[in-house]
Amino acid sequence: MLTIDRVSVRYGAVTAVREVSLTVGHVGAGTRTPDLGATVPDTASSVTALLGPSGCGKSTLLRAVAGLEPLASGRILLDGADLARVPTHKRGFGMVFQDGQLFGHRDVAGNIRYGLQRRHVPRAEADARVEELLELVGLPGLGSRPVGELSGGQQQRVALARALAPRPRLLLLDEPLSALDRRLRDRLVGDLRRILRETATPALIVTHDHDEAVELADTVAVLDAGAIAQIDRPARLWRRPRTPEVARFLGYTVLLDAQVERQQATCALGQVIVDCPDGRFQLGLRPGSVVLQAHGVPARVVGAVPTADGVRITVGVDTDDGELLVEALGDTAPAEGEIVRVALNPRRVAVIG
Question: Which EC number(s) does UniProt give (predicted)?
């Protein structure tokens, strides 16, 4: 189990990571950790994603875990042992960074085999592992190919296979799939998640893609200005972002004030069922949150654009604060200026707070 305990990283007067605490590994809710003297929350998991915009500190934190950045304060522990004096190459971590960092003088198989050779794995066993990983990352038969002849996406797949080859104690991935086409990325997300489960390998993954984080991780930690703004299970994160900043980063571009009573929220777009206590909240809307509905509130059509999922219709709704522009999904494109009725889709609305 990896424990990040109140870690800060500074560059001169700039604090890049601020008092971050996080647990990654195979531990159940309520487990006591003697190193911290505290109870691990139910966000402890085997696959954790660090999610946030550029400059939020997520890659710096990953590099600190790897031993590539010094800590200004705090501790990083693996199975209770402090890693402060353990160099990067002795931590037993597999690492995949955004640029791959392959060995140009080795072919594909040689790159994947590298970690196995350092651990003196018998050649036959190493060769079998290489072939297994070539199949996994979608590069069968390319073991003898020079890495310089590969595309950027292929090189990143080799880097992923190289990190997985020695079955590391922890896998660290910094935007590992960003160079891949969408179709291959979707396949590798599933394959990577499966192999992490099968081999019981914990992973800490950096990404700016919230869809990727949700698909791959058990727990998502959203970073903002070097600190954790929210850490939660993916489903909970989507439905209950803690702050407007987290909501906006997740794609909830429209925030509406709402009054909740008996799990029914009332706002400028009508009423919607929500899972939260009574009180005043904000509702977050993203594409798909608003739909055409005969019994909804009246709205004026401003424009319509066909998409693969239907027609995206921009409508204006009169409110006490003026006209509110939102996007609704429909099957056909109404005429500009036409009055339609819209309502909220409860499955696509977030409650903020």
Answer: 7.6.2.9
